[in-house]
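Following the same procedure, sequence and fold were stored together, as reproduced here.

>
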Amino acid sequence: MAKRSPDHREEESQSLSDQSPDSVEAPIPGQSLFGEDAYRSVDTDHRTFAGYSVLIVAGDGVITDILQPPELTDVDAPSPLIGSVVDTLWQGEPADRLAAQIKRALRSRQVVSTEFPTLDGKRYHDFVFIPQGRNRVLLVERDISERMTAFSRMEQLAFLDDRTKLPNRLFLLEELARCIDDLKLKEGRAAVISLDVCGSDGQSSASNTKQHDAIFLEFASRLVHELRGANATDVEDYDRYTVAARIEYSQFAVILPAIVCGEDAERVAQRLIDVLQEPVKLANRNIRMTVRAGIALFPQDGEDAPTLFANAVAAMDDARNNAATQYKLHSGTIRLRALQRQDLEIELRGALNNEEFDVEFLPIVAADSRQIRSVEALLRWPKNVFGPQSIQKVIAIAENTGLILPIGDWVLEKCCEAFCHWRDHGWGNPRVSLNLSVQEFFRHELIQRIEETLQKFDIHPRSLDIEITEYTLFRDAMKNYSVCTALRSLGIGVIVDDYGTGACSLAHVARSPVDAIKVDNSFVTSLGEDDHDRAACAAIVAMGKALGKRVIAEGIETESQARYLASLGCDELQGFLITRPTSVQGMQELISEGHCE
């Protein structure tokens, strides 16, 4: 197996020679940057370089300084490289790639590395680009020819599984060690997924060795196809390079070298399990296999390759002995998750007590007049508290800890305050739409809590809409729509949000007391491209109108989308075409400009 062919051209490659100053004197054409003729001007064609070189290169490719020149075997001569441009010294495809990597390092402000051969293909060089300020990089070059040649020979002899042609355990551990070394410099994260394959009875369902081989060969193909850049020969960036290996007779393993969090590895593990458990057709038989997976994460589950790999295998063994789950995280990850969840819960409570949340409003307009009929309240999380945490994760923690209830009460109060402000400043008939989670919707005191809050602010229930998901409506249907009916009896409107993607049938909507349905924005987004989405929108609108429900389309971003949905009979529109979410004061400005009915 070839390691990584460095002949791959970066998509962002661009020659830097056009950017070089006219005053820079170009070297002799064909002169290479670190090759045998780099010092042609001092007549050293017979000399070779050893060790490494260190250069300072500006963003436009001009070499401004040499900290460690290439070592000459028998002469020490001044370097003619200062003032030259990288791609005039190293011509052809390698020059384009050097230029692209310089740009990439400056743009990302991260260390970037690559390796490729000389133009004659006889030598290999390794390049590391380290950003130095805004417009220059420290370029370190090493001759790695001997290492690459030795590795290539070893690879063919020791790193392949004969049956599947996948890398074997040894290769996996070698690559995992290199990956970890790289991630330690970047402070990155990685995952190892170990996969065990067996028949439904705990043994292989195949009847002979030949069938075993055919099954595992198919699995090898599926793994490589499913993983981006798996075992690719032309990938030079660890962020894109994944390894899929066969580590035992019926076991495989995968390295994911650049993940953000454990959930990324879980999603990949589940996807691989689903793919491998699809039946394999052999001799008119459909053979199904059971797959269990174990996940270990770097750095919390191990900071070296053997430990990380062993913990992934241990987690796989746990999953194999537990029929209730298809994959297991290593215990270290589980403990870390519990601590992270506890920390996030504390942050949530603090943010709520300190009123660090915010509420913005997204108008809903009439499809014909484009006048604002109501506004949807949107809770905003304090980014300075939660950083890069996803909204879904914060909501999940809030729901699991019960904090979603006081947060929901806080949002209702803020919506009522905004309502009173708009009513006092010229909006004669304001209406607010509020999203409720499942936990909020089915709390025993929901109706009483809403009624008391509306009375406190002297707001009629007809001025409030409650938005719920299809799943929530489905659950309420199991209770004969008791909550929806209670809300409607007060005069509060009920809207089914994101309709068309959930668990509700036509019968559920038809029999329910809901007032309106919202066409999910996934259908609206591709209206101009996908005939199926156009048909789905038309069907949802027609169904809603036939049932006497108000139909709202969300996610409107273009005028053509708005006109098409209005032509179908859609009652109201919502999306960035109208306006982006805005504050209470921003809505007040729209009211003052006469945009409200």
